[in-house]
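>> received
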Amino acid sequence: MSPSLRRDLTSGALAASVSATSLVAYWLTHGSGPFWQDSGLFLAALKAGGGLLPPGYPVYLLLGRPFVTAFEWLLPGRPFAEAGNMFSAVWASLAAGLTCLSILALRQPGYRFLSAKSSSEELPSSAGWFGAWLGGVLTGLSYSLWFQALTAEAYALNAFFSAAVLYLVIRLGASGPIGADPPSRERRLALLLLVVHGLSFGNHPVTVVFLPAIAWLAWKGRAALANRRFLALALAAYGGSALVPYLYLPWAASAFPQTPYSGVASITGLAAQISGSQWSADARNYGWSFIRFKELPGQIWQELFGMGVLGLLVGLRWVARERPALLRFLALVLVPAFLLPLVYLRGGEYDFWLLTAYMALFVVSGAGLCAVFDRIQASRWPAGLRGVGILAVAVLTLIAPLRINPPLVDRTGYFVPEDFGRNLYRHLAPGAVFIAVSDQENALTYYLDVVEHERPDVVRIDAGVATTPWFARQLKSRYPAFEFEDISQGRATPPSTEEWVAALLRSSLKTRSVYMTTRLPVDIPAGATWTPAGGLWKLTAGPAGIDVHDWDYEYRNPDPMARPARDHAPEKMPDGSIRREPYTAQIRRFHAQAWTNLGDWSLEHDDFPQASSAYAKALATDPTLDQAGIFFGLGKSLFVLDRPNEALPYLERVGERLAPPLVAETALYLGQIYAGRGDAQKAEHYFDTVRLLAPEIGARLPPRAPAKR
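>> returned
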């Protein structure tokens, strides 16, 4: 066996062990249900066969649908979501293995990245093997890759494409400059590189950040591009791999017309889907986020931890000295990769976009760990002490991700997202219309609708796609028995979301109850009534009462909101800025708002016992709430129920944050409480506020006592 073949087999076996190690970690921590954000949409698309939200993700679907079919055949009876989650796990493990291969390729004797001069250093092979393995495992156990390995979304496959592009570039540049007549090996690698990068666009468009680096690579090999035949072949391979997968979308729209995102039959519709023009063309989605910029060092630390960062610093120095051209290529990848989420502000989970950058950092960090091992192995320490030093570096490298990451990523026995979706459906009236307004509610109920066939009697409508030209057509195809007023006919532009919701309300109330996750400001038919129903709003044709059982939500996890988590879910603040929080913070707020709605309704209908109970549960659900309306409602209810001592602290927290009439009413209750306590000075202070803000009420108060001289 030749040395090169032996080296290749050893490299392959080492990379396979990295992938296997990562896959075992993913299997031990994977879940059997959907996760938050868009996971439910991806799972439903894998099951239903249609397309996905812009840009459509055709490569994800083309690879994912056969995978879940094979998974179900090999492991019958397992939950469908488990198959979708493990699809991500496989690609994440392969990304870790490719990182190991990239590190090994960089350290081959005689390697020269696009350079006429090969490296002069002698590389001790034993240190190189172990350092590359360690760098690969560090990649597989990193927070973002591990997190996405357990989530049915496009990010894990995106990490694989990023790792594959890096590996192919490293292999392509191994033999030095690309000449006018490159050998067949280099031509094959160049074409494969273009195909892989082209395919990556059909999975997630964030890999566009590789374009400057690939353009630089093409410029370095411009002599080879003078060959017109090779140039035509390269362009065909690149363009075909980037565009051909998108033909799946019009086919899927025709084959599965009942699924959303089916408006791709025309060239215009397909172009809009691919480009995501409703987002990419919106100038409000662009700017600069200094908050995200400040978070970058902390995010890199959370991926690499101490020894990984040390490896990165050493690796950067080693690459600059031994592979300077590669450093230029990596800079052309990393700069746009880190800049993209700083200037394109639409994406809430922008940190997972950085997996493209992280794959490059892990290659450099692994090379740096190899260099550290080289120093240890080349030292004059006794052999045993050198072995202890290498082992200590390995332990310090892996102990942080193994200790910190598992509680943050573990999905075993975690059912809260799926149970949350089931709770939305739990109390709907038979044959109801359910209009989902926010992303979480839409994704999870769509998953339950398509995958679990939950509540087939319910007409589920995604308000987020109501403005699309295909909305009415898809709704008719999905629910042929559902009669509604199609207000899109004869219009030059699609109706707004509010217009569609108003039309659906008019049509539905003839025979159905309507539920919404968020009550939009639309006109409702005469005689109809909005009432809270758990976390939803229910519209019925006539007066309706409250059923307190609508607030009975069930979760299999005993403390569903207590899961340790980092901030990923985007939350829009009143000033228009975006902050991030754990996913369960949004669900906690949903439940708190449900109790608040019940409190408001009960207060409006003078049901003070129920109002006080509901407001108290809202505050117990989310102790961080600082809403003057809740404090006022709870304080007033307790005051009317003759519990002034309990009402006092809540009323005092209202301050002047409400409209003047409510501030006056709050002051009236506080004045009476303090008067009852014999504190005339405080009572008069609040009564003066009443006299100022509500003179008609203040006129009925006892005259102010004259000040004592």
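>> The radius of gyration is 31 Å.
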